[in-house]
Specification:
- The chain is α+β, with helices and mostly antiparallel strands.
- It starts with 5 loop residues before the first helix and ends in a 7-residue tail after the last strand.
- Helices cover 27% and strands 29% of the residues.
- The protein has helices spanning 6-23, 60-68; strands at 27-30, 40-43, 48-55, 75-82, 90-94.
- The model has no long low-confidence stretch (mean pLDDT 89).
Length: 101
């Protein structure tokens, strides 16, 4: 099997996350070029979710930056990690933790 380049694999996982969220009733906006803090901004009538999508792992420094990100109080910050050959992502809700930050 040929190796897929990391950018294409990341884009594929962002599309997978977008489909999951849309199927769950969210409107999903994909960040242009996905180079900002959040890959997906998702909302419905009750929630605002900021989602960062990663493939296989997330560096601790990246996770700390997401935790420190100044979002509205009502926003839910999430890290979705898609592992190779695993159907569903690992979803972690990121909250301020003084021991991590």
């Amino acid at each position: 099997m040929a190796r897929i380049n990391t950018r294409r694999r990341g884009a594929r996982n962002e599309r997978r996350a977008k489909i999951i969220l849309e199927d769950d009733g969210y409107y999903v906006c994909k960040a242009s070029a996905s180079l900002g803090a959040w890959d997906l901004v998702c909302f419905n009538h009750h929630h605002l979710r900021l989602v960062q999508v990663k493939t296989n792992r997330c560096r601790l420094s990246e996770k700390k930056a997401l935790i420190r990100f100044q979002a509205p109080e009502f926003a839910i910050k999430e890290l979705w990690i898609f592992k190779d050959r695993v159907a569903d992502p690992l979803i972690e809700v990121l909250a301020y933790d003084p021991e991590i930050v």
